[in-house]
Design a protein that fits this description.
Layout: E1 3-12, E2 17-25, E3 28-33, E4 43-46, E5 51-54, E6 56-58, E7 66-67, E8 70-71, H1 76-85, E9 88-95, H2 103-113, E10 120-126, H3 132-145, E11 149-153, H4 164-177, E12 180-184, H5 188-200, H6 208-211, H7 215-232, E13 236-238, H8 244-255, E14 260-265, H9 266-270, H10 281-286, H11 296-308, E15 313-315, H12 323-326, H13 346-355, H14 362-376, E16 394-404, E17 423-433, E18 436-440, E19 443-444, H15 461-472
Helix pairs in contact: 3-4, 4-7, 7-8, 8-11
One zinc ion (ZN) binds near residues 62 and 317.
Length: about 475
């Protein structure tokens, strides 16, 4: 029997804070309560009044991702190890088949790549084309492989973009299977057109990236996807919401009673679009990701929508490329591989800019860094909750600890840090994964292959509610 007693902390869940000890036995939380006694041979971790919270769940990462002619530098080991160093104990990554590639082939390939993961992980599967085999494979993935969410790229024309016909077919199939459709909302046709226009005007540097992806391009796609989901009575989750207009579209749909959910990235909350006007190509190109960083006003709007509940989850879209890879777009910004990092920094950025500013309570911090993602993707309360029976994935949080982010000291293999030079107050002192201390006071003890694949059951609670609503509103023929 392997046990760990975390003594003298303040346990924070999404619903409350309490002074309590946490006893972990064989990777699972065995007890949460006052003055727990340690079993023989238990490891004791003195929390000394620090917060004890669910380990973070990053619901949007891309490790070992072959994209735009290259591959991300973080594989599933280095990426999840970086996550553990920042208090994130689970990721949901993406299987992204090439158009015409059988979904199951891509899924098996990604499962193999992920075998080196140091933390638990799961997969959304992208629908990049449509056909009979896609319809069938979605069923296999849901029923046999525990996939309960499918991703749709509305951008990346001539690559992985899906058209409205595919969206409709896939959303409908997802609903029948009890799986959540998710969208990368950007109008790929408009992006393509604006990219050509920028280049025709002689704008070939990274400043062309945000100019070809204005907020309206994101909002149009989000509203289209939301409208399709409304007609089909399917829930929908919009990934990496970056603009006020898109967040407002989600808030409006929710106010109408639609089950629409939004994710915001730590980067979009604190980094603004001035980075693209930096004269150094390497610096500006390192920030090229889609949707791009926005003008400052959008950040305040995103924070407000996160506080108000229109946006429920925080992620990173961790997708790291190094300078040599970004250089592929030196003469043409549309060839710069899209992606930035952040899996190690997300929790501390959210605490520092969210809790320390009074925007979030510690419980709300737990909601947006783990519990809400666990609920939406049907991992709750196994994940996202400090309670008896949950996985012993925890972070011991030092609200007074400080850290200055830098590429030089990060655990990601990337050579850039979008939070470079930012000093945060509030950092993980210890991370516990499956009941084992994997990060302690700056020392990372991540183990390749220790992470487990997480199956996520279909038909989360929102599907029951949608089914009732659909039954009550079912069309009725007129008897003549
Ligand atoms: N976000 C980004 O720029 N790269 C990763 C792929 C995606 O999520 O769109
Ligand atoms: Zn995306
Ligand atoms: Zn992504």
């Amino acid at each position: 029997m392997k046990s760990l007693l975390i003594r003298g902390g303040t346990v924070v869940n999404a619903d409350r804070e309490q002074r309590a000890d946490v006893l972990c036995v064989n990777g699972v939380i065995a007890e949460v309560g006052e003055a727990l006694s340690a079993p023989m041979g238990a490891t004791i971790l003195e929390a000394g009044g620090q917060y004890v919270m669910p380990g973070g769940i990053d619901p949007h990462t891309h490790m070992n991702f072959p994209f735009m002619g290259t591959r991300t530098v973080d594989d599933f080991y280095s990426g999840t190890a970086a996550g553990l160093a920042g208090g994130t104990t689970s990721i949901i990554d993406f299987v992204i088949p090439d158009p015409q590639q059988p979904l199951m082939d891509a899924y098996r390939q990604w499962r193999q790549w992920a075998e080196v993961a140091a933390s638990d992980y799961s997969f959304h599967v992208a629908i990049t084309w449509w056909g009979e085999s896609v319809h069938a494979d979605m069923g296999t993935l849901v029923r046999e492989e525990g996939v309960n969410s499918f991703k749709h790229f509305m951008a990346y024309k001539n690559a992985i973009m899906c058209d409205d016909e595919t969206l409709v077919n896939s959303f409908r199939r997802a609903l029948a299977l009890g799986a959540m459709p998710t969208v990368h909302a950007e109008n790929g046709e408009l992006v393509f057109l604006l990219q050509q226009e920028m280049k025709a005007q002689g704008i070939t540097g990274p400043e062309g990236h945000p100019l070809s992806r204005p907020p309206a391009v994101e909002a149009e796609a989000a509203q289209r996807a939301i409208a399709i989901a409304d007609v089909l009575n399917v829930p929908i989750y919009v990934v990496h919401v970056s603009s006020a207009e898109t967040a407002e579209a989600i808030a409006r749909a929710r106010a109408r009673g639609q089950r629409v959910y939004g994710e915001v990235l730590a980067g979009h909350l604190v980094v603004d679009d001035s980075v693209y006007r930096d004269p150094r190509f390497e610096f500006a190109a390192a920030h090229v990701m889609s949707p791009p960083f926005r003008a400052k006003g959008h950040q305040e709007a995103l924070w407000r929508h996160l506080q108000a509940g229109a946006l429920q989850t925080t992620a990173t879209d961790h997708c790291t490329f190094c300078a040599a890879q970004k250089a592929a777009g030196r003469l043409d910004f549309s060839k710069i591989p899209n992606g930035t990092g952040g899996v190690e920094e997300r929790m501390a950025v959210l605490w520092d800019a969210g809790v320390n500013s009074g925007r979030l309570t510690p419980s709300e911090f737990v909601s947006v860094t783990s519990a809400n993602a666990a609920k939406l993707f049907n991992l709750y309360p196994r994940k996202g909750c400090v309670a008896k029976g949950a996985d012993a994935d925890l972070v011991v949080w030092d609200p007074a600890g400080t850290k200055t982010f830098s590429a030089a000291s990060q655990h990601s293999k990337g050579d850039f840090n979008i939070f470079e030079g930012r000093t945060v107050t509030g950092v993980p002192s210890h991370t516990i994964s499956q009941g084992t201390v994997v990060f302690a006071q700056g020392e990372l003890r991540a183990e390749a292959g220790a992470g487990r694949y997480l199956k996520r059951p279909a038909f989360g609670p929102q599907f029951t509610a949608l089914g009732r609503k659909a039954a009550l509103a079912a069309p009725v023929a007129v008897a003549r």
